[in-house]
Structure formats: C-alpha cells, structure tokens
Amino acid sequence: MKLPVIDSNGSQLREIDAADDVFAIEPNAGVVHQAYVMHMANRRAGSAHTLRRGEVAGSSGKTRRQKGLGRSRQGSIRAPHRVGGGSAKGPKPRSFAKRMPRQMRRLAIRSALSNHAGGGTLSVVDGIIPGEAKTRNVKASLDALGADRRVLLVSGEHDEALQRAARNLDFVTVMPAANLNVVDLVNAHRLVMTEDAVRVAESLWGGEHQRPARGGVAKEAS
After folding, report:
1. Which of 6, 30, 69, 219 has its CA 20 to 30 A from that of 53?
2. pLDDT at 215
C-alpha cells in the first residue's frame, strides 16, 4: 500500500510503498483483544498479601468453654470474625501472567498497525523534530498534524533526544519500533511513525516473520 510522507508542517512530500502484510491486512479484533488482555495481565504485580488465621499473632486456645455459660460458641481469637483475626479468603502473592502463541502476537501487532493505517490515524513523517530537540518543537509539529490526544511517536531506533523533548507532554508516548505493543497501539488515538520506523516494523512483523520457523534448522540436502 502507499503511505504519504509529510513534513513537520503537515505538507505531503512524497509517498512510500509499505508492506501490505503489515499495514493493509484485515484486522483481527479477537486476537487484538486477547493480546491486550495478556499484556495488561502481565503488568499486574500480584503482590497483595493477607494473613490467614494461622499466621496472625495470638493464642490458638478457646476463649471460653463450650457449654454451660449460655453464650455463643467461640474458638481462637485468631478466627476471621474476630477483630485482629486472620483473613478467611484474602489474596496471596500470585502470578497473573498469560501466554499467547507467537504467531497470534505478531498478528495482533499487524492488526493494530493496519487498523491505524486503514482508519487514517497513521502519519508517516520525514522528521518528528524540526531543528533543535525542544518540547515546543515537538508540540508545534503535533499541532500541525492535528494530533492532540494520546499520540504514539515511533522512531526507528531509540532516540534519547526525542524522549527528552516529549516527556513533558502528558499525552505523548515515545518508543522505538522494536518496542511496539498492542496496548500502546490500541490506546493511541494517533500513530506517528518515521520512515525508518515503518521499515523496522516491516522487517520485524512482515514477510517471512509472519509465521515462526518450524522444525528447527533445515538440514542440507545430501
């Protein structure tokens, strides 16, 4: 497919050919949803911890005898219904991690990229920062593109200057193309990529990388 390349003022400079198998596939909403849930689950710390009745401090003996007093039956002061007692079914540290096949994870990335490309929310720029790497320059470029809500800026490689220039803009997220993930792609209202980032995305998720290699290293024919 053809993607227009624009400058920092929003004027079209030229068009580039982008791989159809990365930017022009039919988005698979089900796989994108599964990948989104997996990423969010993997971010959970799972560190909540409560004490059970066997772990809280206190005597384990009965507080009073069972019969003869006309009062309720009571056991240890560490029972869950007591103030200061243990938790009956409280949380314990656990892992919420989920896994997906690699082929599905790659399909989710391609689906999210194709959704932006097909929906007109993908902009390929010749240069994100015109001149000096300053926050005001990044803001001016985004204003020219009409990007003012949850912008994802993607560079070909890690760009420390771009990171510093955009970190004071709370609606902007900056990352290299190799770190693209479904959560940031789905949450972004606008996706702004450099031409280098487009090529990196094609090399990572297009062509022969659409499917994982099977059977290990092929043996040479005798």
Report:
1. 69
2. 58
